[in-house]
Amino acid sequence: MKYANRTRVPTDKTRTEIERAVKRYGATGFVSGWQGENVRIEFLCRDRHIRMIMTEPGVDQAKRQKWRALLLLVKAKLEAVDAKIATFEEAFLADIVMPDGRTVWEATREPIKVAYQGGPMPILLGAPT
After folding, report:
1. Would you say residue 126 lies in a domain?
2. How many domains does the chain have?
3. Is the pTM of this model over 0.85?
4. Does 1 fall in a domain?
């Protein structure tokens, strides 16, 4: 991973930066936690529950890098929403927690995989069908 490969910012400081960023864009709740090597952040914003999970590497420098990349991702999505490039739902679609507790990504990854296994690839440029 090249991004932030020389960062010295501790992971707890980056987590705090993520919390401040989502709050600045209107979040009404935030939580983070870990279990084993998996870490997660969750927040409530615009009447949606958002969950993002990542696996933390075992090496401290790689952990710091990955947390900085997560901060970049969250900020980019929030900025895209603020700039009206995407709606909140478009930007965070995969991370929205559904009433059954799964994210949209968790609920749709298998149907997407099956759909692509059975049919031709979509045309990239052309009129919609």
Report:
1. no
2. 1
3. yes
4. no
In a domain, 124, yes or no: no
C-alpha closest to that of 95 among 105, 86, 85: 105
By the 8 A CB rule, do 50 and 43 touch? Answer: yes
Q: What is the pLDDT of residue 30?
A: 98
CA distance 24 to 115: 39
Six-digit token pair at 99?
């009433």
Structural domain contains residue 27: yes
| CA geometry: angle 99, 101, 105, nearest 5 deg | 100
**DSSP-assigned letters across all residues of 21-62:** HHHHTT-SEEEEEEETTEEEEEEEETTEEEEEEEEPPSSHHH
pLDDT tens string 74-92: 999 999 999 999 999 999 9
